[in-house]
């Protein structure tokens, strides 16, 4: 089921499957900002990654004395959420633990994902509640894909990503979805988009100073800015000849090739005590 929200600037659509933002259109020029999916490259739009970000070594982990299997990025993106509230310009969705989820993730939780339109921006907020009697272990991340180019007369290579600050972030390289020992610094205020940039999979950045990244072209006034604060990692990804780029703030990261598999020691894992709540948000500005 799709839920629609709008204001006088934007119209957005959210799929209850995954509580996934699947369209953001400017009402003045009918420009679609969100990638509409293509099975040749990537069929999703803007999945929420929970309760893991990235890939597990051998797609499994240990918690206590038991071993569990979980696919890349977790199960929330493929789960049906319940529509909790809906107004003209906002909507919120809830996913709770179930008998099925407990088979692969042994924690009782409540995840609320909310969207609100604020002028030409979409505010995305997450609330994770530990409704268990023991500590909750989780990661959560965003994976929004943006059309690139945003105008038919431009190309992918006409665009760049501009950081809020001059960066010297660490890029962690992936091999088959797992972090390897290779690292390098990403230095400067911008990244020019090329197909070659993503030949070794996503750019996974840690120690990033910027709290915003803008997708823009010097040939256009149309751009997208993602504003995020407090996120430990940032992913940037595209694939093949597809005309999209993902800008992904994460609380969590893929396993390393030498990961022990112990969920409690997983890099980037978040921990919530019984009845505690974690909340965060990010903003998509569409100009």
Task: Tell me about this structure.
The chain is mainly β. It has a single domain, classed as Beta-galactosidase, Chain A, domain 5 (Distorted Sandwich), CATH 2.70.98. Helices cover 2% and strands 49% of the residues. The strands form 4 sheets. It has a 15-stranded antiparallel sheet that branches. Strands 1-2-3 form a 3-stranded antiparallel sheet, with no helix packed on it. A hairpin with a 2-residue loop joins strand 14 and strand 15. The radius of gyration is 18 Å and the shape is globular.
How do the SSEs run, as a string of H and E?
EEEEEEEEHEEEEEEEEEEEEEE
CATH architecture: Distorted Sandwich
Q: Average pLDDT, to the nearest integer?
A: 97
Describe the main β-sheet briefly. 15 strands, antiparallel
Q: Roughly what fraction of the amino acids lie in strands? A: over 45%
Overall structural class, as computed from helix and strand content, comes to mainly beta
Q: Please name the CATH topology.
A: Beta-galactosidase, Chain A, domain 5
Instruction: State the distance separating the first and last CA atoms.
Output: 28 Å
Low-confidence stretches: none
The amount of helix comes to under 10%
Give the total of domains: 1
Q: What top-tier CATH class fits best?
A: Mainly Beta
Rg (CA only): 18 Å
Shape by Cα distribution: globular
Count of beta strands: 22
Number of helices: 1
